Amino acid sequence: MRKKIAMKDIAKQLGVSTALVSYVLNDKFPDRINPNTAKRIKELAEELQYQPNHIAKSLKNSQTLTIGLIIADISNLFYSSIARVIEDAAKKYHYNMIFGSADENLDKFEELVQVFVNRQVDGIILAAPEGAESMLGYLQKQNIPFVLIDRDFPDMNDLNSIVIDNYKASYSVVEHLCRQGFRHPAMVTLASNLHHLQERSRGFSVASRELLGIKKERIIEMEEDTLADQMEQVVLKLVEDEKTDSVYFSTNKIALEGLVVLARHKVKVPDSIGVICFDEAYAYNIFSTSITYVKQPLGGIGEKAVQQLLARMKGNATTQRIVLDTEIIEGNSSLRSVNKIHVK
Questions:
Q1: 61 has pLDDT over 90
Q2: N- to C-terminal Cα distance for the chain?
C-alpha cells in the first residue's frame, strides 16, 4: 500500500518547516513567503500526490465542510435539477454536499435528518414533506443550521426559507390563458395539504373568478400514487368536455403524465385544448407542439439557499423568508390569437 504523504514529508525533503508547508498549501500569508519557495513546495506536493487530511482539519476547526441536502422526491425533475444547482453553489464556497431523497415520506425524512446530524454536517438544506413541523422544531432546539426550499410551513414563522410565490404563479397562468382567448380553464393538481400546492390552487381559483367571472372553478385533485392509472381518464374527459378549453398541469410530474395521454390520443394542442404546465422539463421537447410552462428560478433558489445557510452557520441569527418570482415561457400549446379576451 502506498504511504500517505504528509506535510512533514514535504518539509523534510525541502529542508523547510512543516508550518511553512502548511502556510503555502493553505494559501496563508502569501505576501510573507518567498515566491520561489512557495513554488517548490507546491510542485513537490503535486509530484508526491499529497492529499490534505480533511478529517483532521475538520476536527481542528469543528467543521466538516459538508452540507446535507434532503429533497422531497428524486424522481421529480425539479428536485434533481435543484440538487445539481445547490451542489455547484456549495462547491463555490468549498463545501461538499451529500443528499438524500425523502420520497415525500415523513418517516424517511426524519431518518435522513438523523443520519445527517450524526454525520455532523455543518448545515442542512431541506425540502420537507407534509407533517415535518416536529422535526424542524427539533433542529431549531438543537441549534443545527438549516434552510427550507420550495416548502412553506405557515404555523412556523421563524424559519429560514427560499420559496416562490405560488399564488402569483398560478394567477399569472390564468392571466396568460385569458389573454389568449381561453375562457374555461381547468387545473389538474395533487390532493395534498402542502401549503405551496394549496397556494397554487388558490391563485388559480381567485384568478378564474376575478378575470373570467367563473363562479365555480374546475380543479381536479389526484392522488400521486395513482397518477399513471387515472390520468388518461381525467385528461380525455377534459378534452371531451365542451365547457373546458384549456388545462393547467400544476406540477411537472402531472404534466408529463398528462402530455403523454394527449400525444397518445393525438389530441390537437391548442386547437382542441390549450395546455400550460408548471416547471420546465427537457422531455417537453419530444412533443410536436412546443409547451408553455411556468419557469422557476432554479439558479436563484440554489444560490440563495446556500448563501443563507452559510450565514446561519456563521452565527447570523436573523430569520429571513425569501420569496422569488416565476415567469411564463410561452410555447405554442397555449397560444390562440382569435377571440381574445381583455383582462379586467
A1: no
A2: 76
